[in-house]
Amino acid sequence: MRYLQSLLLPLVGLVAANAVRAEPAIQELPPVTVTATAETLPVSANEQDAGTRTELGPAAIRLFGGPGQTNPQQALQYLPSVNFQSADPYGLSSNQPPGNPSMRIRGRPTSSPGSPHSLRTVEDLPLTGAPGGGAAIYDLENIQALTVYKGAMLPDKGLGFGNIAGNINLRMRRPDEEPGVFLKQDFGSFDFFRTFLRGDSGRLPSDTRLFGSYSYTTADKWRGSGGSPDYRHNGGFGLTQDFGESVKLELFGVVNDQKHHDFRPLTEIQARQLGRFNDFDFNSRLSGNPARDISYYDFNRQAFTDASVFANLEIKTSETSRLSLKPYYWHDEGFYLLGMPMLQGAPGVRRWDINHDLWGLLGKFDFKGWDTDFTLGYWYHEQEPPGPPTSWKAYRIAGDDLRFAGWALLNKQSHHIFHSPFVAVHRQFGSADLSAGLRYVVQQTASITSYRTANLPDVSYSEVFDYRPAVDPSASVGSRRFSDWLPYFGATYALSENHSLRFSYGRNFNAMPLHQYPTYIMSRRAFEAAGVTLQQLWNQQKPGQSDNFDLGARFSGDNWFVAPTLYYSTERGKAVTAFDPELGVSYYQTARARAYGAEIDAGLDLLDGLSLYGAFSYNRYELSDDIRTAGNALLRVAGHQVPDSPEVEGKLFLTYRLGNFSISPGMRYIGERYGDVENRMRLPSYAIADLHLNYEHKKFAEMGDLNLGLSFLNVFDKQYIAVVNARDDQRPGTTTYYPGAPLTVVGTVSLRF
User: Fold this and answer.
1) N or C: which end of the chain has fewer CB within 10 A?
2) Ranges for the TonB-dependent receptor-like beta-barrel domain (predicted)?
3) Which region among 426-435, 508-517, 649-658, 667-676 has the lowest average model confidence (pLDDT)?
């Protein structure tokens, strides 16, 4: 994208030029550091928190995140109870399949209904929402730490549309104290090519620090035609300004422009014959048959441009108090194209245009009194639709082109709004450390005014209302308001300086699901024939709740740590898309569920230069009751493990260093999964091995630090099902599947000076 390059390259160049000529500044420790047992163990697990938390530092992000370095979920794939899958080897197809999670934590999908990717936050701000292109817009080279919170949530964590599965928080890498430039080039299998450049100004005489970055990424799909991505341009910046010792202002921004062609999912029958269909994908040529040409690769793609900016203003109001204000904004614009076998009565291609914004503010006041730490906070969030979708256009295939066939869906919506005040306290009593909090969350859903679409022309969404379409009252609904109290309690007890026990309880939530609207529109005749209105379906929905109990421990020494955890959770108001045999339609309902299990991760420096990290988890996540549909049919699913949720996972990662060289093999074992809630489609277990080779040379040719890397992903070229496109109640025969990528080889060269 030329205008993006023209805007960002001068910024990076300016910062880099200043980095070359600036005088070195005094090194200052960052305000928050990534902790670890040792430098060779970059994963840190629960050193002080009562809740279940695991943190990855820059070294772990670089190793676990793979060559793509764009998808934070991929960097978490070696952690306990985290099951991440990708349709491509680099984690670049993060929005494939659109609107469905490719990652689960403790068996639960990392999305809330109506807002995929909603469990991810940036500096505790909900800036990575969807639908749209916001799934992975931050280059991981600009991320200082990734933290996963599981179970009970502290009141200021997991802000957004939901946190029942947990929270993944990204902490930005601040501008460096000293000037410098970092340049990295990756190239690999399937024409993978990625360039990353970052320049840091160092601390200027005005107490200002700046960084600017730019990256370009492209790769072919490993099966079929098209790119994944065809292109990805990304630019970021950061600014830190100190005003004396009491006031600090931070500002961060990112612009991301990306296009990619989707991978074709497999049916259940094809997934059972993976040896035959592993390379099956969309058609590379048009045939002249519309029923076949809906599977043409260029009719199944997406493109989005995203821009996000947020600030952090910190004011030290006294020696024992601090005020922080974090305003944020995100804009997303683009489209999905999807070939469909039945669209308004015939095969066609649907175009879903998206153009929406979100904004909000997180404010906190921290102070100390009576030997107790207090936090008072307030979060406000407002978001334009979708979801649910505001417009769909239908097209027929005419030769090698698309011919407009009408609007398939059209509506106007108000905004989704959240208000959430919270309070937290923390105090230490000898060897015991206690914390408690309470959060009040209010959700106001958008109202929906639908319009009849007959005879409307092929114009933009904003222009179509100039033609005064008639309101469709039976497909319109009003706004709804929900509120809930979310308590939290945590306790740790120090057995010794290095050993401790911990317990936490907390109530988490998911916002009301929003899928009923498009489901009703697509199956309207069946609902109307049964006398079921959209308002009836809408009124049945409510937010989800979970009560979470974690009991854990941490044992550590100078060169090792072990962190076991037991957990139990009950869930109410869980959104499920149950198939109603009386209506012949699948639609959202609410149900109860429970989750329980055990997990452990450990790190160890075995010998000089040899370090080991391992994780094991057992996760059970099941529906608690059979489901009664609106047509009065009974679906007997109680006690069944939800789809795409392996009970057993094991991960192992080893690094051996010899001088400037290092070798890092890794292995991930994923146990059996099911493709449906009735547990009929069994997916076999599998193990994937990766290998990373690295060479470091400090002060190479008196220029800077040189790093050479060679990575082998899926070393043994294992064929397996990676992504399972199934909701937690998926019926037999309706799930789709995405094979995992084959052996992939990637080379990396970087220079830091």
Assistant:
1) C
2) 278-711
3) 508-517
End-to-end CA distance of the chain: 28
For residue 558, what is the DSSP state?
T
Element spanning 218, H or E: strand 208-218
- 283-333: per-residue pLDDT in tens? 999 999 999 999 999 999 999 999 999 999 999 999 999 999 999 999 999
Q: Each residue of 661-676: pLDDT tens digit? A: 999 999 999 999 998 8
Helix, coil or strand: residue 507: strand
Tokens 């199956």 correspond to: 523
**Extended beta strands in 26-179, E state:** 43-45, 52-56, 82-84, 103-105, 108-109, 111-112, 115-116, 120-122, 143-150, 167-172
pLDDT at 68: 81
H or E element in which residue 216 lies: strand 208-218
Q: How far is 191 from 314, CA to CA, in rounded Å?
A: 45
Averaged pLDDT of the chain: 88
Q: Is the dihedral of CA 202, 206, 211, 212 positive or negative?
A: negative
User: What pLDDT score does 728 carry?
Assistant: 56
Buried b / exposed e across 602-638, counting CB within 10 Å, b at 16+?
A: bbbbeeeeebbbbbbbbbbbbbeeebebbeeeebebe
Antiparallel, parallel or unpaired: β 120-122 and 167-172:
parallel
> Confidence class of residue 114 from pLDDT cuts 50, 70 and 90?
very low
3-class DSSP state of 16: helix
Which residue type does 695 have?
A: Y
pTM surpassing 0.85? yes
Q: Domain ranges in the chain?
A: 2-282+305-752
Q: Which helix (H) or strand (E) holds 696?
A: strand 686-700
Calculate the CA 752 to chain-centre distance: 29
Q: What are phi and psi of 141, to 5 degrees?
A: -65, -20
pLDDT at 461 over 80: yes
> How does DSSP assign 324-371, residue by residue?
EEEEEEEEEEEEEEEEEEEETTEEEEEEEEEEEEEEEEEEEEEEEETT
pLDDT for res 243: 96
- Rounded Cα distance between 333 and 131, Å, is 10
